[in-house]
Design a protein that fits this description.
This protein has 300 residues and is mainly α. It has two domains: 211 residues, no CATH class; 82 residues, no CATH class. Helices cover 62% and strands 5% of the residues. It has 14 helices and three strands. Strands 1-3-2 form a three-stranded antiparallel sheet. Helix 3 packs parallel to helix 6 and helix 7 crosses helix 9. The protein starts with a helix and ends with a helix.
Length: 300
């Protein structure tokens, strides 16, 4: 419930402003870390290294690693040593990965070694960071949403509305962050379909382009979250310097003024998708239905 409410608010902010405050992700991560402590504090200590408290310490470690991605510790450091923050982060991934998988190799998974939930959280962090670095997700808020969701719900072992069967059992071996993103990717197919229908109704459909954008009156350009595709502009100048939604809106307003002065009435645009909205939908559907792709395969 806490995950769905938090992701729902983040989706609303992303839809309205295309920005989500790091404060929200920080609050959700601390809540997820606190809730994740409960099984370690109320359950049996068990036997193992560090007096049976290894799992508790590893959970605190991965919680702190998520939080590290949500605080701007690297800003001042990057001004003096631009390459140092990246090197420290890489070292952090290696150290935390060693701390998580080292005990798993020596003592196994479970109460005596590395808890499965800890492995799921670390894999969720790594998964989100890799997707961000290779450009499959574009906004930092998207990667943070995946990390925080993976901390709040490391593993999903049951979904009340998912069809039972062999595919349902796969939920127990997938980190929740992976299921969430798979659901979001499947739900995102609604976007090109809706664009295609819109262009067909407007008589502006052409193959491929009709699934990726639409024609927009120049007079509405300053009020929409879009990228201008036709006519083209020099993307290496102002567009590259737009770091916030306010910068991007001011840029669109300047483009609108330029196009109006040139007598251009319509432009071809692609929407700036609020991906956190899709991630929130992916989280809700995951909680209720599990992995949608597995569900579809099960029903075939």
């Amino acid at each position: 419930m806490a995950l769905c409410l938090g992701m729902g608010y983040a989706a609303w902010r992303d839809w309205r402003t295309r920005e989500v405050s790091d404060t929200l992700w920080l609050v959700l991560s601390l809540l997820g870390g606190a809730l994740g402590l409960v099984p370690f504090l109320v359950g049996p200590v068990g036997s193992g290294p560090l007096g049976g408290h290894l799992g508790l310490l590893l959970w605190l470690l991965v919680t702190a690693f998520v939080v590290e991605h949500l605080v701007p510790w690297d800003v001042a450091l990057a001004e003096r040593h631009p390459e140092l923050p990246g090197r420290l982060e890489l070292a952090g991934y290696l150290v935390v990965g060693g701390a998580v998988f080292g005990p798993a190799f020596l003592y196994g998974l479970g109460p005596g070694g590395t808890p499965v939930s800890v492995v799921a959280v670390y894999l969720g962090i790594l998964f989100a960071r890799v997707l961000f670095e290779v450009g499959l997700i574009y906004g930092g808020a998207d990667a943070k949403a995946i990390m925080v969701a993976g901390l709040m719900v490391p593993m999903l072992t049951a979904a009340p509305l998912a069809p039972l069967g062999p595919a349902h059992a796969l939920l127990g071996i997938y980190p929740f962050a992976v299921t969430l993103l798979m659901n979001a990717a499947l739900l995102s197919l609604v976007v090109p379909a809706s664009l295609g229908i819109r262009n067909l109704r407007a008589g502006t459909f052409s193959f491929f382009r009709g699934f990726t954008g639409y024609s927009l009156p120049v007079s509405e350009l300053g009020r929409r979250f879009v990228w201008i595709k036709d006519p083209t502009f020099d993307k290496d100048s102002e567009e590259a310097a737009a770091e916030t939604s306010e910068d991007d809106q001011r840029l669109r307003e300047r483009r609108q003024a330029e196009l109006t002065a040139q007598g251009v009435r319509y432009v071809w645009v692609t929407p700036q998708l609020p991906f956190v909205v899709l991630l929130a939908a992916g989280a809700v559907t995951a909680v209720l239905f599990g992995n949608l792709l597995f569900d579809l395969l099960q029903l075939l």
